[in-house]
Amino acid sequence: MFAERRRRLLDAMGPDSVAIILGARLATRSADTHFPFRQDSDFWYLTGFDHPNAAAVLRKGGGPAFTLFVEPRLREAEIWTGYRPGVEGAKRDFGADAALSCDELVGSIPEIVGGARRVYHVLGRDEAVDRALVAAVEEMRLRSRVGKVPPAEIVDPRSLVHEMRLFKDDRELDIMRRAAAITCEAHRQAARLAHGGHYEYELEAVLDYTFRRRGARGPAYTSIVGGGANACVLHYIQNDQKLENGTLVLIDAGCELEGYASDVTRTYPVGGRFEGEPRAVYDAVLDAQIAAIEVVAPGETLRAVHETAVRRLTENLAQLGILTGDVDDAIAEESYRPYYMHQTSHWLGLDVHDVGAYMTDGRPRELRPGMVLTVEPGLYVAPDDEGAAPTFRGIGVRVEDDVVVTAEGCEVLTAAIPKAPEDVEAWVQDR
Ligand code: GLY
Ligand code: MN
Ligand code: MN
To answer: Which label site among 54, 172, 287, 349 has the fewest CB atoms less than 10 Å from its CB?
Structure first.
């Protein structure tokens, strides 16, 4: 799988070119402690190598096609931090044609770029590598009289890799379906705690526990558990307040499984019953979400999905009396924006806000089978909104599913997580 991806990248690279792809380093958490290691998504996509400080060199036209620079085996280090594949493992288990210690990367740059007409490299990620690259190119230029030909271009490889990542194959979709199943169970367990008196962090803890218990690495992004008006803070992650019956709790949480993110929002009635204004806002969002998903099909665009969500939300806001006047005018003037201020969709994959161009030739690109996106409209009435009736203030609702474009239309990967009001209520009531 990884070899096939490297071959496709090499095919796309053009003659006599070389790509330098850097892996992630450990990130300091504080003092001498680190965050758990998470490989760079592009590096993982191309190599499957899940250890820090690695780099890959892909070469087209002479020399080893795939060289890995890795931390060498070192008994003293491995006693503390565990197994390293080392240069032997890089060749044996990861398909490298050649392998060297990561300490040799910077010194090898002149040799890596020597003879290449085009160098693919992300500038700005590693100062030492950038400096060595610039110095090597300059040195070749100075020696052009003795036949050295410096590369003509330094090109960012990400547009090539990200175009590949945008289209998920069956193996990737299988992982994403399993991630959805784990996320489903996590939401189910958290929903049971959506009762007055519980704290937001208790629900977060159950999400984390369920992700880990089912073999996921953990959350794909910091889980959002926002009770009451906290749901109006789009990236609320404090998760430290007490839930109150009669309000709503918005949970935006999905696991990361084998590198792939799921990203699901459900809004649960605290205490188990959707009633009054919270119910009305919930219905308004759900209606828009279902309508927006119906648009997802080959040939459609994310803009069309968004415009459908905006139209339905605006119509529903007018019905609720939160917006007054003509719906078309409200859309044209964007007067819905105080209540719906984000986009409806983003790509989903190894990154939660996944890579891949949203526009081609200045226009929203057409959806094609294999693209995975979220559909996540919401309505958020700020607690201090003077325009809305007091009974609506502080209500925030979002409903988010993960959707893959298929030949016929789409498949909702997260369909098993209920969103019809009575099904959501049943989950909360099933303690
Ligand atoms: N969880 C982040 C998002 O929904 O985009
Ligand atoms: Mn989300
Ligand atoms: Mn999302």
So the answer is: 287
